[in-house]
Amino acid sequence: MRPILLAGHERSLNQIKFNRDGDLLFSVAKDKIVCAWWSANGERLGTYAGHLGAIWTVDVSPNTVLLATGSADNSVRLWNVKTGECVKVWEFPTAVKRVEFSPDGSKVLAVTEKRMGFLGTIAVLDINYDGDFTNQAEEPSLRITCTDSKATVAGWSYMGKYIIAGHEDGSVSQYDGKTGEQLENVQAHEFDHQINDLQFSPDRTHFLTASKDKSAKLMSARNLAILKTYVADTPLNSAAITPKKDYVILGGGQAAMDVTTTSARQGKFEARFYHKVFEDEIGRVKGHFGPLNTIHVHPAGTAYASGGEDGYVRVHHFDKPYFDFMYEVEREQLRR
Amino acid sequence: MSRPAKADWADDEEFDDPSALPAQQITTNKDGTKTVISYRFNDEGKKVKVTRRIKTTVVREHVNPQVAERKTWDKFGLEKGHAAGPSFDTTSVGENIVFRPSVNWKAQAAEAEKNGGEKGSIKDQLKDKKVKCRICSGEHFTARCPFKDTMAPVDEGGAAAGEGGAGGEEDAAGGLGAGGGSYVPPHLRKGAAGGGERMAGKYEKDDLATLRVTNVSELAEEQELRDLFERFGRVTRVFLARDRETQRAKGFAFISFADRSDAARACDKMDGFGYRHLILRVEFAKRAT
Fold it and tell me: Which site from A174, A193, A217, A225 is most exposed, i.e. has the minimal number of CB atoms within 10 Å?
């Protein structure tokens, strides 16, 4: 497969996201612009300018009408995907590390940083799709405060029933999506190893966490049971579940600050593919010159994109061997 | 109403013009292709007939209407006003990555690593190796060097010197070469067989069976020439001069035969042969002086 290299950012990537149809790809980096790309050919559709700080996170509404971004300038911005206009700014006391639309697109959660005496929070904002989208509620409809350890990542479970959050101390907690009450908290990863990414399966019944403790865990959204563990040899920044084939893709590498002292070989700047069920590593894809900060898989499972510390986004459209690979038992089952 | 409806005076004028071009003809062939014959004037003012065969293929793709709608969106932000299609400053295509998932990929990767590091197949080894001419350091085989007949290989001097030393009669010259650090003119050095003779030495003999072919088409290929001339006997070498930048043929070529009689026959038969819209001129290569 020939990756498409997208060089729209001047600094390291923070998050990339395909839209639900997979035709668009959004990327945010430490520079202050958001880029929208056509995933098929890597053409840039446009940029969204307005943020005043590094942009940590991006998400697009399920109908690809609105785009939410969270930035180090302490704001969440809502953009009109088609025109690139900013339609709403929500100010927060601290930086916003993660935004995510609920599965029905009616809400956005925003994870705010713990800093300057403010505790880390998860705020839920209601989204209004009427008119020109500028008429949005000013105040969050729900605010969850993380008193123990700040949340670093969060997402919505199936039908928005729960909010699942990963914490700085390596624990994963489950909140009620409507009341914000904490239902469960599991120390999924090693203590004090931050969870860097949390991505859901397409049906949102289970999710994958990537942690600094060099492992990724597949967990059930319902009861936070750890279903599978994927062990890597490097701190992980991102992990994604692939639809269509039962794989997971993990990305990570030497911490950015140590990169200059290690060669690209030792840096382990590769996307690692594991079999989702058998937990075996089945291959790696090289390419980045720095750690992989973010990975996202095309919703149809035909491609994946990775964004690295090197400022590049690489879009890989899978070719035949990827789809053909099967374990002997799988083949056996198919024959029957 | 005998007059045809469309009898415009302007059209009549056109038909009277002797320089007018015949109308374009489109015929549909049996296999579904179309043949379009049109006429135009070329740069020299001559009438040229252009025949094109066109095959139309319809590729039908079903996409989500929302996705199709998005395809029509205009670019915005930094891309505002840019033409459709990826721009080169933001989008490029990386090198091909072979990705084959496998249970024991680690073992395979280690093996590939080992093979790559030590030997691997000869082909793989030579894959990224540049061909370098020993005579002129160009990017072709030594045997195909255009200066082959006029120059000796750069590192051949030493080897030739060894041979010269073995033969007793050239000892004096050899002594000069090997002796003190004083300058020895090229014609006195070892390997320079005799006064005045050129250094090419053994590279000269195939001059006898080498043909110079001129008026070769720009689009000629070495293999084609080889095929053309191989009919007359074993061809030892085909050299087609190419432009360094464009890689197009320069219009002449050298063909060496193993046997001089074959070369003579080829010279006889191929002189005036029509190849690729041009008429070849074949003669025995003259020795460059």
Answer: A225
Task: Give chain A's radius of gyration (CA, Å).
Answer: 19
> Which positions in chain B touch A9 (Cβ < 8 Å)?
none
pLDDT confidence bin for B128, thresholds 50/70/90: low
CA distance A69 to A72: 10
Q: What mean pLDDT do residues A73-93 have?
A: 91
Contact between B105 and A286 using a beta-carbon 8 Å cutoff: no
B62 CB within 8 Å of a chain A CB: no
User: Does B76 contact A at CB distance below 8 Å?
Assistant: yes
Residues ≥6 apart with Cβ < 8 Å to A74: A53, A91, A92, A93, A94, A95, A96
> Of the CATH numbers 2.130.10.10, 3.30.300.30, 3.75.10.10, 3.40.50.150, which one belongs to the domain with range A4-335?
2.130.10.10
CB-based contact, A84 to chain B, within 8 Å: yes
A119-175 pLDDT, tens digit per residue, is 889 999 999 888 888 888 888 899 998 888 889 999 999 998 999 999 999 999 999
All domains of chain B, ordered by start, with CATH?
156-199 (no CATH), 204-284 (3.30.70.330)
Domain extent listing, chain A: 4-335
Distance from CA of B102 to the nearest CA of A (A): 5
Shortest CA gap B66–chain A (Å): 9
Instruction: Measure B103 CA to nearest chain A CA, in Å.
Output: 5
Q: Which residue has the tokens 């639900």?
A: A20
Q: Is A2 in Cβ contact with B100 (below 8 Å)? A: no
